[in-house]
Design brief:
The structure holds two protein chains of two kinds. Chain A has two domains: 232 residues, Rossmann fold (3-Layer(aba) Sandwich); 69 residues, no CATH class. Chain A is 29% helix and 24% strand. Chain A contains ten helices and twelve strands. In chain A, helix 7 links the parallel strand 7 and strand 8. Chain A is globular and about 65 Å long. Chain A starts with a strand and ends in a 20-residue tail after the last strand. Chain B has a two-stranded antiparallel sheet. By secondary structure, chain B is mostly helical. Chain B has a domain of 172 residues: MetI-like (MetI-like fold, Orthogonal Bundle). Chain B starts with a helix and ends in a 12-residue tail after the last helix. The chains are: A alpha/beta, B mainly alpha. Chains A and B meet through helix 2 and helix 3 of A and helix 9 and helix 10 of B.
């Protein structure tokens, strides 16, 4: 039995703008199994959202996939016809966006939007689709689903809207859900509910979920595997447990240091990573992180670090972490 | 289903009622202003009526007959009293009650203004949508340049050019008048073409431009991307979802254009000798026919208010976030 649902090989998505070519995703590879939750972590502009959108070819006009392979459940996503792609979107693969308030159409009732989606993908009558929609709303824990069917999106809270969106996402029994920062726009208490709901979907329906987030805390809680992205490339990719026990890339350390912790003493300041993410039109030819990295060496500015398996199942792209030489977190850079 | 729709019906009724109440002060102001302004037009109606050969004594007698020698305030009060009883006064140049003159001419004006509005919507809106969807394409560039020319063109110049080219030079269409159904349907159409083209051009261009800019704002929204991510057909994404989201500014402009089509009709009807309200107002001003000017302006003001009411009601239906009680979008 084939357990693998998604295989991404050397994906490159570039944006062609008047001021140059932005290499938003520059050679990213990963695989996902059925029922797995994978996290992609990174700052804004690291290419994580573009990676997710590339999987279903949902790119703006200026962007296009220039190289690589995306195989979803036997479909070559780069080559299938648009009509086939539309059939997959929303049925086999669902996507949940960051801001629930803006990802529903504000001028149509929730019920109408759900019925439209269900009837696009399934051969059901209006009544059957209505019943399915109500059932889905019930499933995601929306009270009084029948009356919510008649509500407009602005009449619901953000958390409720995100539940509606999740209800829509699962209404055609997808195999795969892309969740692009699904809780970023929500209150912390609501965040936990939504994450719990997504986890339940995986446990009960066996859906694979790709979580895009900048919050490592969410990754700890949810994911089986995790990929850390920076400047359009993978800098670290491994099992969750391994990253938790032994994070190896300096950028991952930076992300960990910049996470607020309740247990930290009150006087301890958060350590932000100095500098800003690189201009994606200028990346390539060096380590994208070198100018912000406290462990930088001469080679980092000259060569792109290869993604190396430094221990079984743990890939890291860092000149100073390639198996033989191991850098210790917090080690003072002797060049300085 | 029922509870929310009932709420909407109540909203609609409330809006109508509110507008009707607002109508009273609006009409009062319009009546007063037109009354004062018409009397500020230089020229004496009695003198114009009697022609250049009339003697001062004749003019004075005529003035008395028309009630124009009474104090202004008295004339004003008389006029208001008349209106409150449904009497809009008598036209001195036509020697007939104003109201019946207006009602007689109104259908001709509606015939060309409504036709041109419907045409403008059905031509302008699709052009705007295609231009937005194919932004920066040849289609977009060509039609937006045409639209720019369209909105910049003075209507009287366009009318004269149309007459010159299509009637005088090419002889394709009739120059003057309405045509009659007795001469067959084609006769009516043939007479309508040029005035309708004249009245359609500016609104079409305006609608195309507004639709394009409003659509451009909408198609980059997250909700549209989300629809595509859900596998909804592109035609539905654009023509059902995006267009409905883009409607509010368009509805406003359609309302404004419809109302201003009535004033545009004054020029158009005069150029094409189209016997509608526009020609009536033109001749009333020319003859200093105070009662007729006032009556016609009042009538157009009422049309303005009702068009606005309809626009607001359409808002209520297409945009669920509008709540007039709360005072706009939350």
């Amino acid at each position: 039995m084939n357990d693998q649902i998604l295989q991404v090989n050397n994906l490159k998505t570039y944006f062609f703008t008047a001021s140059g070519t932005a290499k938003a995703v520059d050679g990213v590879s990963f695989t996902m199994n059925r029922g797995q939750i994978m996290g992609i972590v990174g700052e804004s502009g690291s290419g994580k959202s573009v990676t997710a959108s590339s999987l279903i070819r949902l790119l703006p006009k200026t962007g296009s996939i220039v190289d690589g392979e995306v195989i979803f459940d036997g479909h070559d996503m780069r080559r299938i016809a648009n009509r086939e792609l539309l059939k997959l979107r929303g049925s086999e693969i669902s996507m949940i966006f960051q801001d629930p308030m803006t990802s529903l159409d504000p001028v149509f009732k929730i019920g109408d939007q759900m019925i439209e989606l269900i009837r696009t993908h399934k051969n059901l009558s209006q009544q059957e689709a209505y019943r399915t929609a109500v059932e889905m709303l019930h499933l995601v824990g929306i009270p009084e689903p029948e009356s919510r069917m008649n509500a407009y999106p602005h009449e619901l809270s953000g958390g409720m809207c995100q539940r509606v969106i999740i209800a829509m996402a699962i209404s055609c029994q997808p195999k795969f859900i892309i969740a692009d920062e699904p809780t970023t726009a929500l209150d912390v208490t609501v965040q936990a509910q939504i994450l719990g709901l997504l986890k339940k979907l995986r446990d009960e329906m066996g859906v694979s979920i790709l979580m895009i987030t900048h919050n490592l805390g969410i990754v700890w809680e949810m994911c089986d595997t995790v990929m850390v992205m920076y400047g359009g490339t993978t800098v670290e990719y491994t099992e969750m447990a391994q990253l938790y026990a032994n994070p190896l890339h300096p950028y991952t350390w930076g992300l960990l240091d910049s996470m607020p912790r309740l247990s930290a003493p009150p006087v301890e300041e958060l350590k932000a990573i100095p500098g800003t993410p690189p201009d994606l039109r200028l990346t390539g030819g060096c380590c994208a992180f070198y100018n912000r990295c406290p462990y930088m060496r001469e080679i980092c500015a000259k060569e792109v670090p290869p993604l190396v398996e430094v221990e079984p199942g743990h890939l890291v792209a860092c000149h100073r972490q390639n198996g033989d030489k191991t850098l210790v977190r917090g080690e003072v850079n002797q060049d300085d | 289903m029922a509870d929310i729709d009932n709420e909407q019906v109540i909203q609609v009724l409330k809006t109508i009622l509110k507008r009707l109440v607002q109508l009273v002060p609006i009409l009062f102001v319009v009546i007063t202003l037109t009354f004062v302004l018409t009397r500020m037009i230089p020229g004496n109606p009695a003198a114009i009526l009697l022609g250049p050969q009339a003697s001062p004594a004749d003019i004075a007698r005529m003035q008395e007959e028309l009630g124009l020698n009474k104090p202004m305030l008295e004339q004003y009060v008389n006029y208001l009293t008349g209106i409150s009883q449904g009497d809009f006064g008598k036209s001195i140049s036509y020697n007939r009650p104003v109201l019946s003159l207006i009602l007689e001419r109104l259908p001709a004006t509606l015939q060309i203004t409504l036709t041109s509005m419907v045409l403008a919507v059905f031509i302008g809106v699709p052009i705007g949508v295609f231009s937005a969807v194919k932004q920066y394409s040849a289609f977009d560039y060509i039609f937006m340049i045409l639209a720019l020319v369209g909105v910049s063109m003075p209507i009287f110049w366009l009318g004269l050019m149309l007459v010159l080219v299509f009637s005088v030079k090419l002889g394709w269409f009739a120059v003057l008048g309405m045509g009659s159904l007795q001469n067959g349907f084609w006769d009516v159409v043939q007479h309508m073409v040029l005035p309708v083209v004249c009245l359609t051009t500016i609104p079409t261009a305006t609608f195309a431009r507004i639709t394009r800019s409003s659509m451009l704002e909408v198609v980059n929204k997250e909700s549209i991307k989300a629809l595509r991510a859900r596998g909804i057909r592109e035609s539905l994404v654009i023509w059902k979802h995006a267009l409905k989201n883009a409607l509010p500014p368009l509805i406003t402009v359609i309302g404004m254009q419809l109302a201003s089509a009535f004033s545009g009709a004054i020029l158009t009807e005069t150029i094409f000798s189209w016997p509608g309200m526009g020609m009536l107002i033109y001749s009333a001003v020319f003859n200093r026919d105070y009662a007729l000017i006032q009556g016609a302006v009042l009538f157009i003001a009422i049309i303005f208010v009702f068009v606005n009411l309809i626009v607001d009601l359409i808002y209520l239906v297409i945009n669920p976030r509008v709540n007039y009680e709360g005072g706009g979008t939350p």
